[in-house]
Amino acid sequence: MRRINLWLVAAVLVVAVLPLILPLPRGLAEPFTGADGQAQAAITAANPDYQPWFSPLWEPPSGEIESLLFALQAALGAGLLGYYLGLRRGESQRGRPDADRARRDALAVAARD
Amino acid sequence: MHIMEGFLPPVHAAAWGLASLPFLVMGARSVTRVTREHPRAKLLLASAGAFAFVLSALKIPSVTGSCSHPTGTGLGAILFGPSVMAVLGAIVLLFQALLLAHGGLTTLGANIFSMAIAGPWVAYGVYRLVRTLGGPLSLAVFLAAGLADLATYLVTATQLALAFPDPVSGFLGALTKFGGIFALTQVPLAVIEGLLTVLVVNLLIQYSRDDLDELAFAPGVVR
């Protein structure tokens, strides 16, 4: 199972990094802009008269603040997920008799030395 | 898949809000029921929300030369059923609308419908279908999460095409245009989302079989 998981992580990295290595599609004004922004640009291009009728209550004042908040979002999520998996991993190992025996043996060896 | 603030005409914004409302009510009930009936699984429920939190924050490059993000809603949908994800996904979208000016309050209903309702229901349906047909767990999880991700973006493209039909080619022309922006870009990201969801399910089976048993998820599958 552990080997499968390592392969899964490797595959994710390959799929994520490959676009950066492959040649970009022709006629691209700016590489790797957001698809959401492109859709917004397409709306404005096809409907020049459309005026957004509401604007965000608050906008991050700079790109740095925006990336801070995105990093915070990812960190909160990853932190909680990691806490959960670590907690359950610890519980599952504490409950295993062979793990207990291994720990006792290790302690015994340490005490003897 | 975030439709920007103010970028849906008021009637469309209101209609998608109304369409999402019953799912949110149903979702809130589901969350209450899950936490009451399976108190042990509360932390797993929060973790499923956390997974959506991480994945929707990651903007990943795609072969089309643009960037987009996964949604992370498939995991919770196959573990807890699709309803709860309406609530968890709405929390993610609200965070992004208020703090990141990503999406918006007027487009919240539409964005909830694509990411927190359509995606999770597709995930749940695909998962059940593949399992019923006797497909292996990993394949079911991969297809469920990946197709949910794609479905979310197709719904966004449909929402935009309904609101901004092409003056010449109409709704279908606009759907092709918005679909072109979202769908192809999203394919590698859907693969990534599928792989990561399989990874998390593997870890859950390895370390958290008790919680999965509590939810009667994939009974009998052990590491």
From the coordinates shown, what is the CATH architecture of chain B? Orthogonal Bundle
Q: Classify the helix fraction of chain A into a percent range.
A: over 70%
Order of helices and strands of chain B: HHEEHHHHHH
Q: Mean pLDDT of chain A, as a whole number?
A: 89
Provide structural commentary.
Chain A has four helices and one strand. With 113 residues, chain A is mostly helical. Chain A has a domain at 62-113. The longest helix of chain A is centred in the C-terminal third of the chain and has 32 residues, at 63-94. The radius of gyration of chain A is 25 Å and the shape is elongated. With 223 residues, chain B is mainly alpha-helical. Chain B has one domain: Arp2/3 complex 21 kDa subunit ARPC3 (Orthogonal Bundle), CATH 1.10.1760.20. Chain B is built from eight helices and two strands. Chain B has helices spanning 10-37, 42-55, 74-80, 82-99, 108-132, 137-163, 170-207, 209-214, and strands at 60-61, 66-68. A two-stranded antiparallel sheet of chain B has the order 1-2. In chain B, strand 1 and strand 2 (66-68) form a beta hairpin. In chain B, helix 1 (10-37) packs across helix 4 (82-99), helix 1 (10-37) packs across helix 5 (108-132) and helix 2 packs across helix 4 (82-99). The longest helix of chain B has 38 residues, at 170-207. The model of chain B has no long low-confidence stretch (mean pLDDT 96). At the A-B interface, helix 1, strand 1, helix 2 and helix 3 of A face helix 2, strand 1, strand 2, helix 4 and helix 6 of B.
Précis, in short:
Chain A is mainly alpha-helical and 113 residues long.
